[in-house]
Amino acid sequence: MGNDYEYSEDNLPEKKYRREKRAKYTDKELVEAYKKHGSFRKAANALGLSFESVRRRVNRHKIDPAVKAGMDAVNTDIEPSVLWAKTHKDGTTTYSALLNPKSKSTAQILEAIEQRFEHLKPIKAIKPDAVANSDLMTVYPIFDAHIGMRAWGEEVGEDYDSDIAVRYITKGITECVEGSPASDTAIIINGGDMMHADDNNNQTPKSKHALDVDSRHFKTIDTVISLSAALIEIAAKKHRKVIYRALRGNHDEHSHIALTMALYQRYRNSDNIVIEKAPSDFFVHRFGKVMVAAHHGDKGSATNLVLQAADKWPEMWGQTRHRYYYIGHKHHKEFKDIGGMSCEMLRAATKPDSYSDSHSFTGKSQLRAITYHREKGECARKIVNY
Fold first, then answer.
1. Is beta strand 82-87 parallel, antiparallel or unpaired with respect to 93-98?
2. Cα–Cα distance measured from residue 118 to residue 256, given in angstroms and rounded to the nearest whole number
3. How far apart are CA 304 and CA 317, in angstroms?
4. pLDDT score recorded for residue 357
5. Hey, what domains does the chain have and what are their CATH numbers?
6. How confident is the model at residue 324 (pLDDT cuts 50, 70, 90)?
7. What's residue 51's pLDDT?
8. DSSP state of 151
9. How many H-runs (helices) and E-runs (strands) does the chain carry?
10. Angle at Cα 116 formed by Cα 115 and Cα 119, nearest 5°?
């Protein structure tokens, strides 16, 4: 047609524009922009570049130059676990690399996932319907929901899957909210094992115990994020302030991080909803003379957890009179007063699966709301069995 322009995706105007813009910035300039703006996405928006190109080039700039040369030689953006360099007689160098990504700390994983969710639009503030009592605080501890687990009723007595779990938990927490006092502050503690599996391998991360699942892990995470947001907003219609914290479980060691970051970005502009994003396995909160702590319960006995609490938070311990520690993991109820603190193992939010049934674990499914007076300690409790 008399036109020597050759169509390709790379010749689209926006692609050419990005190439031209990218050429104007050195890696050092991108690093300075990242430091100035505080995130890859904000730096990318300020410079008119793509998020991925800024992230990749800034991360590569941090790598040792010798390692970077090897990465260029083998044409990869992944920092290798092991890199071999062989210098030949003619002076040339060839490289071989083991491209398994290096293991990252929980803090690094938190940062990486947070950056992926930065573009999400935050929700508008939710105002409570009732007048809240500032002398009261209500805790909604949800332990061991195991969403994504499949149980066959013919085998264990009752069917269970993600859809059933969502119905049970939504109904149960709604009843707990409706049945508890209109306290000023609500704390929703996801006590771990909210998700049955941590990835598509369908095994527990440490012991590699085989798991019965009802769906792909991507869908499970999506389901749990939606459910958690719904529970937060149910509570926010009653309580002036809602605090949410997801703890690590032995089934969802890494998935709970994605959940935390998604919820944090959803509510980042909210004045009355706080999503705690902390890498610690422990939760602790002080309300007047009340101290509330939580841990999944898989890495220490009740006695050791209480002793550690006194040592880990000595100022809070000394400022409080009523102290409560909540754990899960074993799916049944136990209660102990240990050296100035009440430690309660809570029943699971899930139904039994094949493993639980075959090992004669008979704990009942339960949700609860526990209300505290800032001076007098626990003063009300709403229990929902299902």
1. antiparallel
2. 17
3. 15
4. 81
5. 9-102 (no CATH), 109-385 (3.60.21.10)
6. very high
7. 75
8. B
9. 13, 13
10. 90
